[in-house]
Structure to design on (455 residues):
């Protein structure tokens, strides 16, 4: 009688786990049968916990941790990394406290993981405490400094992040430079971002950040220099960088430059198509945007449009007066692609109808939308009020203004819009009254700002 096959040794199973986390459940069963998980050495259980985390099963990973007969620092760090990776900062904080209670001091890996949790939740006070702890325990290294820079940048504390960068005692690597560069761009510190580019190693992340800064400041000259660097460094086949180039040329008013980049792309995704359509939309090429959308539908390999794509197409139709085509697109969005229009899509259609003077259709759509929802999004009210102002429809405009004040009476932007509506229809007393109410309530509309490259 043939004997039953012996299960593979635990070391072989752990190697399989590291490369095939989807097999976690099956390997878990084998390890249970072989009693490998009941041994005092927690290596198999920790590997299984990590595999569950990599497979997108944080609940199973947490249960695995709870069932471990013995835990070490590596096991605690694996649990913390799992919770942070799956956006559970509160559970990670509780586990961090549990680790300390169990007598395990935090390592550098522990502090870096918790700094990531603080960055994701923008919790700068606990982050500062972790920073102080890393200094006291002498756990500093370039990885720790990168995590600190990421924390302070995500919390908007750019000066603190730059101070960490300048005072680091370790050789700066590409990850640290990229953290500073991307943080400066995200926080609008474009001058510092451009200055940082002189010292950083050019890679996909740094080039994308540079192009984003050029887009935000409409700096065409610098953007073209970055484009040259993209070509010289061989990144012209990178889809993400090409998408950033399309956006940069579009924001700088060079639609033809954006189209040249688009046509030369080796592979286009939905962001590529949407960005190019949006470029045509912003520069008044409605017919070009529609033609490009039709090309997208026939493209191979197939790329399905999403809600952002349709918003760009609707905006293009609105800016070019293509009302019937815009209505057809909204219908196509639902019937062919199964995408439910969001408030911004309906607001775009209302704006389109208002520009065309079809105020009765605007009102019909507005009534249907407000009847369907208990609380209509503010974008619908704003678009309808603007349509009423453009068509000098006083009665309907006043009704919309009243609805807006009922929905969000503390929004200063609403009071300004209502004041402008009354000014447009020459009701000066009502216009002044809206401004007076703002002053009495202490409401102030945030001033707009723009970044422009000069010289």
């Amino acid at each position: 009688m043939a004997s039953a096959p012996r299960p593979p040794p635990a070391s072989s199973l752990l190697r399989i786990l590291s490369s095939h986390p989807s097999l976690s459940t099956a390997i878990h069963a084998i390890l249970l049968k072989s009693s490998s998980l009941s041994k005092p050495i927690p290596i198999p259980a920790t590997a299984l916990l990590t595999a569950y985390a990599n497979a997108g099963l944080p609940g199973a990973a947490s249960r695995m941790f709870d069932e471990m007969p013995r835990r070490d620092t590596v096991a605690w760090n694996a649990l913390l990394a799992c919770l942070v990776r799956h956006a559970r900062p509160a559970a990670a904080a509780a586990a961090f406290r549990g680790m300390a209670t169990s007598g395990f001091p935090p390592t550098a890996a522990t502090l870096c993981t918790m700094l990531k949790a603080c960055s994701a939740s923008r919790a700068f006070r606990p982050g500062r405490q972790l920073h102080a702890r890393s200094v006291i325990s002498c756990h500093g290294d370039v990885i720790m400094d990168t995590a600190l820079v990421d924390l302070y940048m995500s919390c908007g504390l750019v000066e603190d992040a730059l101070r960490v960068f300048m005072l680091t005692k370790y050789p700066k690597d590409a990850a640290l430079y990229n953290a500073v560069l991307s943080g400066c761009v995200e926080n609008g510190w474009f001058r510092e971002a451009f200055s940082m580019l002189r010292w950083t190693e050019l890679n996909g992340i740094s080039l994308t950040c540079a192009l984003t800064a050029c887009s935000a400041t409409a700096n065409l000259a610098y953007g073209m220099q970055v484009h040259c660097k993209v070509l010289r460094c061989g990144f012209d086949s990178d889809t993400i960088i090409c998408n950033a180039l399309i956006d940069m040329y579009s924001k700088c008013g060079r639609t033809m430059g954006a189209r040249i980049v688009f046509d030369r792309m080796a592979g286009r995704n939905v962001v590529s198509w949407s960005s190019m359509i949006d470029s045509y939309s912003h520069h008044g090429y409605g017919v070009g945007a529609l033609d490009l959308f039709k090309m997208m539908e026939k493209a191979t390999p197939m790329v399905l449009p999403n809600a952002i794509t349709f918003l760009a197409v609707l905006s293009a139709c609105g800016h070019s007066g293509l009302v019937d085509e815009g209505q057809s697109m909204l219908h196509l969005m639902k019937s062919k692609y199964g995408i439910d229009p969001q408030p911004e899509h309906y607001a775009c259609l209302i704006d389109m109808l208002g520009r065309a003077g079809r105020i009765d259709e605007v009102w019909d759509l507005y009534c249907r939308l407000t009847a369907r929802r208990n609380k209509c999004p503010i974008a619908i009210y704003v678009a309808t009020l603007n349509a009423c102002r453009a068509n000098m429809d006083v009665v309907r405009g006043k009704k919309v203004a009243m609805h807006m004040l009922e929905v969000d009476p503390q929004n200063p932007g609403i009071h300004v819009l209502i004041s402008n509506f009354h000014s447009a229809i020459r009701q000066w007393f009502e216009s002044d009254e809206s401004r007076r109410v703002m002053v009495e309530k202490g409401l102030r509309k945030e001033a707009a700002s723009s970044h422009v490259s000069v010289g």
In short: The chain has a mean pLDDT of 88. The radius of gyration is 28 Å. Residues 368-446 form one domain. Residues 108-121 form the longest helix (14 residues).
